[in-house]
């Protein structure tokens, strides 16, 4: 069946409303912790990061403390994390550049220049900081959910982010985090379509694709 023409700016409103105030699953208490946890979370589950974070931040409570640490000093706290040696290098590298919490950049261009931070990570950090969005968060959940809905296509995060930014006005760019939450709760690899608030406009559910 040929898909209808959908006004996504209108269709996405219920999803944005549902998850508007839902925080990211990483349980960080301040911007320093958010930066460190986002860097650690690549290819590792948020639950593992939440589990190891308290001891890590007890040892290195802020950017200044981390800036004085060696990679070898950080490694014992993050061995449960995938690629932990590189991540220890990235974390200490970031800290040595930034030096203190108040210097953490709150714009995308400066964030992506830091080691271990790409566009997705930068967008997550900006959302936590309450800074104006400069892009759309595209994680593994969004890569699954957006093509199912029919709002974007492909499996390249950068290209998908561009599609979403073109389809929606800037004030709706929090759609990435909203789709990520939907992907964790309902639109899992085996989706629970019947209870999804987006099923009326979903290409997968309506067999439009």
From TrEMBL:
Cofactor entry: [4Fe-4S] cluster
InterPro entries per UniProt: DNA_glycosylase, Endonuclease3_FeS-loop_motif, HhH-GPD_domain, HhH_base_excis_C, HhH_motif
GO biological process: base-excision repair, AP site formation
Keyword hit for Ubl conjugation: no
Name of this chain's protein: Endonuclease III
The keyword Kinase appears for this protein: no
Pfam family, one: HhH-GPD
Keywords associated with the record: 4Fe-4S, DNA damage, DNA repair, Endonuclease, Glycosidase, Hydrolase, Iron, Iron-sulfur, Metal-binding, Nuclease
Domain HhH-GPD: start-end pairs: 40-185
Organism this protein belongs to: Ginsengibacter hankyongi
Record-linked SUPFAM superfamilies: DNA-glycosylase
High-level lineage: Bacteria, Pseudomonadati, Bacteroidota, Chitinophagia, Chitinophagales
GO molecular function: 4 iron, 4 sulfur cluster binding; DNA binding; DNA N-glycosylase activity; endonuclease activity; metal ion binding
Top-rank taxon, per record: Bacteria
Family membership noted in the UniProt record: Belongs to the Nth/MutY family.
Signal sequence bounds: none
CDD domains registered for this protein in UniProt: ENDO3c (cd00056)
């Amino acid at each position: 069946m040929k898909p209808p023409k959908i006004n996504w700016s209108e269709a996405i409103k219920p999803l944005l409303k549902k998850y508007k105030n839902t925080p990211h699953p990483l349980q960080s208490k301040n911007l320093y912790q958010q930066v460190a946890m986002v860097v650690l979370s690549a290819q590792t589950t948020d639950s593992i990061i939440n589990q190891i974070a308290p001891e890590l931040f007890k040892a290195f409570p802020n950017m200044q403390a981390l800036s004085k640490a060696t990679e070898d000093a950080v490694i014992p706290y993050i061995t449960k994390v995938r690629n932990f040696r590189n991540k220890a290098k990235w974390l200490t590298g970031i800290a040595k550049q930034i030096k203190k919490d108040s210097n953490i950049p709150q714009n995308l261009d400066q964030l992506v220049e830091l080691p271990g931070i790409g566009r997705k990570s930068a967008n997550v950090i900006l959302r936590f900081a309450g800074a104006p969005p400069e892009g759309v968060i595209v994680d593994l959940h969004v890569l699954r959910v957006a093509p199912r809905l029919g709002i974007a296509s492909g499996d390249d995060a950068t290209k998908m982010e561009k599609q979403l930014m073109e389809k929606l006005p800037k004030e709706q760019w929090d759609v990435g985090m909203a789709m990520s939450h939907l992907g964790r709760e309902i639109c899992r690899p085996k989706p629970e379509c019947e209870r999804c608030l987006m099923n009326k406009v979903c290409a997968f559910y309506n067999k439009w694709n």
